[in-house]
Write the C-alpha cells for this entry.
Amino acid sequence: MDRQQQFDHILSIKKELEAATIDYWHQFSNYTTWQFWTILAMLLVPLIVLYFLIDRKNIFLLGFFGFSIHVIAAYLDSLGVRKSWWDYPYIAIPQLPASISIDASFIPVYFILLYQWCLNKEKNYWLYGTLSAIAFTFIFKPLLIGLNLFELYTNWFVLLAAYLFVVYAAKLITNLFIRMSERA
C-alpha cells in the first residue's frame, strides 16, 4: 500500500469512527440521559461561578493562566484518549472532544480560582497546585469512574503525572510571560 492509499484508509476509519460515535451518542449519551446533563453542568456551572468570582483587576493574568491550563490539559487529555490510557464513555456534544467539559471549564476554572487565591493570600501555588493534582487524580477521577463518566486503562500515576504536568507547565509559562512583560 502506498502513502496515499494508507492515508485514505486512515481517513475511511476516521469516518467510520465518527459515524459510530454519533450513533453511540444517540443511543446512550443524548439529552435524555442524566449523563448528558451532568456533563453539560460541568461545562456551564464553573464558567458561571468564574464570572462572579474572578478578580477583575487581574483578569488578563488569570485568563492567560486559565487558557494555559485549558490548552495543556486538552492536549494531554487528547493524548491519553488517543493512546487508550483513558476515555470518556459519555459525550455532551459528539462533534467535540468528550472531555470538553473537564478540559475547557471544570479544570481551568478550578485552577484559575486556586491561582487567584494563592496570589491574594500570598500562598505557595506550587504546593497547592500539587495537592490539587493529587486530589484530581485520587478523588475526582475515582468519583467520575464511580459515576461511569470516566474510564482509566493505565496506571494511576500516569494520570497523576499528566495533572502535575498541567499544573506546573501552565505556571511556568505564565511566569515566563510575566517576566517578559516586566522587562519590556
